[in-house]
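Continuing the series of single-chain predictions for the mutant panel. This is the parent chain; the variants come on the following pages.
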Amino acid sequence: MSQLRTVRLFAGARQAVGRDELQIAVAPQATAAEILAAIGQAAPELAGLLPACRLVADQAYVDAQQSIAAGAELALIPPVSGG
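Parent structure:
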């Protein structure tokens, strides 16, 4: 059974998609890799950027194999550059 989750988008990811949030459907105990795959399906315009992005759950970076609790606050953080 899938549940809808909201993923906040920042910087280049937000620009690529044209909004600051994305709704995805994943299993209640989906891994970070499964969530990233769902993001890619929901927003194909992120295909070139997604491999370099990091997923954040409840304000902490997560590894691809980590299971993400239902209700966790999710954010996609693209690489940043500055000077």
